[in-house]
Every structure is written in C-alpha cells, then in structure tokens.
Specification:
The chain has two domains: about 200 residues, 2-enoyl-CoA Hydratase, Chain A, domain 1; about 50 residues, Lyase 2-enoyl-coa Hydratase, Chain  A, domain 2, CATH 1.10.12. The protein contains twelve helices and ten strands. The chain is of the alpha/beta class. The strands form two sheets. The chain has a six-stranded mixed sheet, with helices on both faces. The chain has a four-stranded mixed sheet with strand order 4-6-8-9.
C-alpha cells in the first residue's frame, strides 16, 4: 500500500509511502488517502489525523507525472476526469474534514504536496522543508485547488510570485507568510504535530468540529454571511454534552 495508517490512542498518522518516488501522488495513492479519511471519519474513537510523508526528503513532490502524462494524452475530458477531479476531491476532503488534520511537512512539498498543505487546517514543517508551485514549468496552472486557495490564504501578490515563478521557498518563509503554523527541527516534527493535536483534542469533539466547520465555511464569505454560519454553528452546539460540561466546569471553579 502507498499509504500507511498507524493509530495511537485517539490519533491516526497517515504516511504517504512512496519514498523512492518522493511520495508523488499517483492515482492509487490519492484514492487510498480518500479511503483512509472515509474510514477515520466513521471511527468515533479517532479524534485527529497527522498526515506526513515517508523518509526525510519529501512530504510529496506533487503529482505522479507518468500518470498525468497518460491522462493528458487521452485529451482534456480524460485529464479532467482522472486528474483534476481526483485532486479537487482530495483537497476538498482535507479542507472540510470534520476532525482536525495536521500536515507534518517532512521535506519537499511541491505541486500537489503544497496544495494538500494549503487545504489542511493546520501544518508544521521541518526546518529543511521547501514549498513550491512548479506547475507553470509543465505548462498549466496549479490544478488541485492551489490557484484558488493560495491567494485566499497568502494574498494575491505573494501567491502569484510562487505560482508565476515556480521558485520554491524555504520553511521559514512559509511560516512567515502563513502557509504553515510553525517550523521545527526535523527530529522533532512528529512530536510537534502530536503536541498541536493534543492541545486541540483536549476539548470536546463537538466543539472542535463546530470550530472547523464555522471557519472553513465562512472564510470566503461576506462578513454577514460568515456571521450567519457562525450563528448556525453555535446553535448546533448548544444542546451538546460538550457545552453542558464546559459551562458547568466554569461555574464550578
């Protein structure tokens, strides 16, 4: 299998396991990631996901070019069906997942690897990690959501510099512009991701899901529309045990 899954209590670590291919995203790997996320969502005992790559060279160097080339040779409709829609499905799934996903970037995050990082709600990076948008050298714009998410997250000019030049940026720069939450020594990467996860899952699962849903759905809306999303998330949380227990803990102090 090109995706390894390891569970430690309430946390599952998913590892893209194509180290010799720099963890490139071929179609079976994308499909395996989607299947794992479906399984994890259905497991009530799993509270969070850490997503990383095998080895130290790459989180993911992006799309598997031989797979892409074969799809492109079949024409636009086949390329859209096999490549773009699959990539969109994966990044949307990660972006909208009801449990927190922390990407632990253990090396290169190029193309689709960078787009997964953009889609994930949280990310930490090893000091040697690098982030790049090399799609322009292949003749097309980022196709897994990167042409849309990156400008929304970083601003138009910062995003376009990465997209139009194709030049990679170091981890420190990625943290400075908000692409990742923090940068740590490589040997501490998974520990840092786990620490971030633990600080989240100490809270009620219904509260965590409400926060993820409100931010993800509201971030690109007008303020009035976003406030309506926020109000709906609050109303849905009111009857939950998480709210009852949280308010009671405060009153009992």
């Amino acid at each position: 299998m090109s995706v390894r899954s390891e569970r430690d209590r309430q946390v599952v670590t998913l590892t893209i396991d194509r180290e010799r291919k720099l963890n490139a995203l071929d179609y079976p790997t994308i499909d395996a990631l989607l299947a794992e996320l479906d399984r994890i969502e259905a497991e009530d005992g799993v509270r969070a996901v850490i997503l990383t790559g095998a080895g130290r060279r790459a989180f993911s160097a992006g799309a598997d070019i031989p797979s892409l080339a074969e799809s492109i040779a079949g024409g636009p409709e086949r390329a859209l069906r096999e490549f773009v829609r699959r990539g969109h499905t994966l990044t949307r799934r990660i972006e909208e997942f009801p449990k927190p996903i922390v990407v632990a970037v253990n090396g290169l995050a190029y193309g689709g690897g960078c787009e997964i990082t953009e889609a994930a709600p949280l990310a930490v990076a090893a000091e040697h990690a690098r982030f790049g948008k090399p799609e322009i050298a292949l003749g097309f714009a980022p196709p897994f959501g990167g042409s849309q998410r990156l400008p929304r997250h970083l601003g138009r000019k910062r995003a376009l510099e990465m997209i139009l030049t194709g030049d990679p940026i170091p981890a420190a720069r990625a943290a400075g512009i908000g692409l990742v939450n923090s940068v740590v020594p490589a040997d501490e990467l998974l520990l840092a991701a786990r620490d971030l996860v633990e600080r989240i899952i100490r809270h009620a699962p219904t509260a965590v899901a409400a926060c993820l849903r409100a931010v993800t759905r509201g971030v690109n809306l007008t303020i009035d529309e976003g406030l309506a999303v926020e109000a709906a998330a609050f109303a849905a949380a009111v009857p939950t045990e998480g709210v009852r227990a949280g308010v009671q803990r405060f009153l009992d102090r």
